[in-house]
Description:
Structural class: alpha/beta
Number of strands: 7
Distance between the termini: 38 Å
Helix content: 25-40%
Largest sheet: 7 strands, parallel
Strand order of the largest sheet: 3-2-1-4-5-6-7
Order of helices and strands: EHEEHEHEHEHEHHH
Number of helices: 8
Amino acid sequence: MPAPRTVLLTGAAGRLGTQMRSLLPEYGYTLRLFDVRPVGGEPDAITADLADTGALREAVRGVDAILHLAGISLEAPFEKILKSNIEGTYHLYEAARREGVPRIVFASSNHAVGFTPAPRPGEPLIPVDTPRRPDTFYGLSKSFGEDLAQLYWDRHGLETVSVRIGACFPEPNSVRNLSVWMSPADGARLFHAALTAEGVGHTVVHGSSANTRLWWDLSGARALGYDPQDDSEPYAEKLIAEQGDLDPTDPAHIHLGGRFVNDPPIWPY
Length: 269
């Protein structure tokens, strides 16, 4: 697929959206910004809710692709998840379909498969076709998003790459995250690959850096042209000294979803 010129970035005021606002233009993209909250320093950003179908339709009109990062990114009551992550994602796909946008890159999550046991040393990496086992209502909403993407590809020919993001921070902040960390720079590399790869249909890939302690298979992402450059290992000694190594009796340490399986962080808004 030719490199898109204009990309709608939803969730532009969020942590990941803010990272991508500074990184993706280096790949030649013009970003159209959308968020329910004002985007600081961006007077042309669109401030609207995903439930505002009129504003959403105008936001997608004329763009070459969409990077969908908007929504609740922690656990929340089902009613909030339903409105933001499930209905909101549906509204986005409908607007994209109506305006003829050819591709969406959807921010899925490791929490769509959060109850998957983490591999022990020497065991095979988790494949991308592992059965979905969401760990929260949040993870459930990401499972829905992947199924919605499949439906819109099969029925309407709207392509999607669903990226099951691990933990995208400037540095990993836990021993568990040493296995699923994705540096912001690698995040931009992966989103760029997902926006430009040919013939993706609906493709699900894992999203992390090339970590020494990697838990899941990155071959699908690499097939899109993703070439991760970073590794969490330089942070391992300090994190293990501070937090201790993973406890094989702790559910938060032996499942892919970490603490989301037994003590999920709650959305504060």
